[in-house]
Amino acid sequence: MRIHAPLFWLPPEAAHAAAVATLELVGRRPALRRLLRARLAVANPLLETTCFGLRFPNPLGVAAGFDKDGRAVAALESLGFGFIEVGTVTPRPQPGNEGPRLARLPAERALVNRLGFPSEGAGAVAARLARTPRTAPLGINVGRNKATEVARSADDYIVALRTLYAVGDYFVVNISSPNTPGLRDLHRGDLLGDLLEALRGEIGTQAARTGAPPKPFLLKVSPDLPEASLDEIAGLVIRHGAAGVVVANTTVDSPLIARANVGGGGLSGAPIRALVRRLVREFRRRLRGRAEVVGVGGVFGADDAYAMLRAGASLVQVYTGFVYEGPGMAGRVCRGLVALLARDGVRSVREIVGVDA
Ligand SMILES: Cc1cc2nc3c(=O)[nH]c(=O)nc-3n(C[C@H](O)[C@H](O)[C@H](O)COP(=O)(O)O)c2cc1C
After folding, report:
1. pLDDT tens-digit series, residues 119-147
2. Domain-wise residue ranges, the chain
3. Is 268 a catalytic residue?
4. Of 55, 118, 219, 280, which residue is most buried, by most CB within 10 angstroms?
């Protein structure tokens, strides 16, 4: 039995809240953090990588949605993750959708959620992150409030970005949650171009104010994109100076969603692995090294992470795999990656990124 198995006796949201609360407590105790790091984390130069100007101790990160309010960053680092992406953070606090809104499909190693961005709001999250000790890159994923008109979406992203700019190392613009009405419309070329340009402008303003180079921003996309839209999206990412694309969010296109009985939502975990890996490859080819791909979807073990890197992801993230595999996951995946890199005679992660693209 894995140490986190009792969490599965609780309803999914209660289990999640308990996990985050425990991690938050652990994060406040430096001696405990050191102990966990010594027991679980894998430090190996083979795993170190540089991506959009940031240095990562390893390429395995925690995906957005696990730590929406930035409570668990210090503890997640000590479990051995190479970076953490907090959020989605909305500019103003909001409760998210009514429950039930999260379900497990254990036989499929999947989750279905329609949380709808419960968030403490950018101000509270910024204050907490400013007090958080950390050693690895921190991404901040931003979104818009449900009550905001679709036409005013860019204002929300900009307010969230401005509020959080000082405390993050990179930013992710989430236009791909299926649980906020109208959000995925922002994949449309005209809207997306305007949004990315507005974000680039705001980052430029913040950078000028602080006298430091502009921080990188990425776009998080849906896995349900029509093939015909990929060229346009990749082109806009390059044209508007985004550092990369996070591929991908949850899918709405699966019969498994109805089986979860939460009234719709997005599916994550093992069933989206192949879909996401294919999309990573498609984006890698189209971005031609001018922007990076961060791969997320269905990673449970080192083989999955390795395949994602080979498909073209410079970094890999996990959410559902972490829920099922538990706190030892980062260490296990990192140890496995070291073995796979050594087996293939590869001297650094970078060398195998995209070899199967
Ligand atoms: C319960 C839950 C909540 C999520 N919340 C967010 C979120 O707030 N913002 C976001 O960009 N992605 C969110 N995601 C999507 C994940 O970051 C990830 O893209 C997706 O789950 C696929 O990865 P996985 O198969 O490893 O879970 C959420 C996923 C789950 C399961």
Report:
1. 999 999 999 999 999 999 999 999 999 99
2. 5-346+348-352
3. no
4. 280
